[in-house]
Model the fold of this input.
Amino acid sequence: MWVVAISNDPVGANAQFCDEHGVTYPFLSDEGSAFMHRLGIVNDLIEGDDPLYGIPFPGSYLLDERGVVVQKYFHREFRVREVPAFILFDGFGIAPQLEGFPRATANASGVTLEAVLGAADLKFRQRAHVHVRIVLPPDTTLVAPPEVAVAGAGLEAGPPRPGLEGGTVAEVQIVDRELETARAEVSAHVQVRTAAGVHAGHIVAVLEIPVGELNRASRG
Done:
């Protein structure tokens, strides 16, 4: 799998950005935006006499092994974009590697809720998934799919839907540009069957989400 980025900034500016933020994949320069005009992604909300003229709408293309575009994500707001794991999961159905990402667990009556953010951190208006999994003790089964919800101050969460390995995912993004610490309350209402009968319970885990520096508002 290859990742390639392109911007209309000069080569030197891209090189400085890569050095400052540890970017190791190829980062191409389309100074003058000729290639972006060919793709039709130049931001037409910016007039030609504006110094920012030529910048593209932010987005990503997903290409298969033949180089054919199979999915794309584009936004009018330059700060809105997806984290890599979001694109892989939604675009290709590829299970992202979640090891080392923020994680929270909670337990009630032997039933465990695990919640993992699909990124190392989250920046303003970035879209990421919260991956939720219910772990059952031996000789216990779910009566129905768990009712999962994700919420938090300064966060916007989408409706839950099927996720990895029978789990659940919910889209989440930071919508408060002043937020320095983000906490997502991940809850699940579960009904389980054991030898003793059917039981219902509510589990809540608090997922601490680091707020990335790149798009954090200036405090100057």
